[in-house]
Amino acid sequence: GHRHGHHRHGAAGMTYGLPTGTSITYGSAGFPEWVYELASAFSVEASTYPGHQESDRGPEPGYAPNPQRLNRGIDFAGPVDRMDALARYLLSIRANVEQVIWQNPNTGNRIGVAGGKDVSATPYFASEFPQHRDHVHLRISQPLPIPNQENTVGWTGDPIWLEDVLRPVLGSKLKALPDWQQYGHGDFGPIWGVMVHHTGNARADAMSIRNGRPDLEGPLSNLHIAQDGTVTIVAAGVCWHAGAGSYPGISTNGGNQVLIGIECAWPRDTTITPATQTRERWPDAQIIAMRDTCAAILNKLGFAQDRVIAHKEYAGQAQGKWDPGNLDMGWFRREVKKAQRGDFKKAEPKTKQLPRDLTDRELLEDIWQQLLAIRSEK
Length: 378
Description:
Blueprint: H1 33-41, E1 45-47, E2 73-77, H2 80-92, E3 99-103, E4 110-114, E5 117-118, E6 136-139, H3 162-170, E7 174-176, E8 193-198, H4 206-211, E9 212-213, E10 216-217, E11 223-225, E12 231-233, H5 255-258, E13 259-264, H6 284-301, E14 308-310, H7 311-319, H8 329-341, H9 360-375
Parallel strand pairs: 7-12, 8-13, 8-14, 11-13
Antiparallel strand pairs: 1-2, 2-6, 3-4, 3-6, 4-5, 9-10, 11-12
Helix pairs in contact: 3-6, 6-8
């Protein structure tokens, strides 16, 4: 009828909503077919329950009228990485979506959509996120497009976003070689994760990584990290860094095609061998830059700390590689996990005391955000 004419319901004017009081357990029948297709694309299952998003929020921007109090909520559950991939996909098509609430239990990363707007980094769903670590909540008033296979991986194609993702965490420590987006040995497909290396000589700089060696054409890695913690972006495309090797989840000898490579300038003493590698410790500034860089990239990909591996873990048997030397990868991954959660950020700025140190405006905004959070239903 004419009432649907001015709402965003897709070309066909289709709406979504199940009768008031609908109950569907995970994996059971009752949803329209497209819901099962969406769930299947991400290997999750859908459910809903009586009272789930049956309110009429029509006057609010980004919400369609719901005078019949239709059931417009869907919860999706499955493996954490699959729920995370679904939530990131929903965020990418948020203009079609009324609500998404999800917090990754492994990384703490939050994804929130309210009225089609990204509220992930705001207090809007602050009280809701802790209850949404075992399922992704969705509210919609129209059928959603089903992604193709590419949407279901962390990222497909060259990581042209490296500068945007690293700048907020590294600030002036981040540099980039000219035209870095244009360099590489062909294009990435789906990216599996990150591999860390040492250069074998602390004096090897970012240009040497781009230029390569007589026996191996550059670029040799996507990023270079100096002893003082300066991170330089070298290339966006595939780089020759992994070589022969194997690791669970990565096809044999296929590391270059699926791993962002990071070359770290170490050691200063080039006579160090695997037997004497504990002689030289890594500079704190360099380790911190490595940790924060890996954490930011993995958060962008939506992966946990297990997706950062050492060259030695992949190429140790095949090539006898031992880099990065004197670095315990179990410890390093735990540090990356903390950085992904934001543990190291909290210590730095002195937090303002409520309400004493706040301006009137800040105090009003804080109260307003709390009221919004209370008003917003699950």
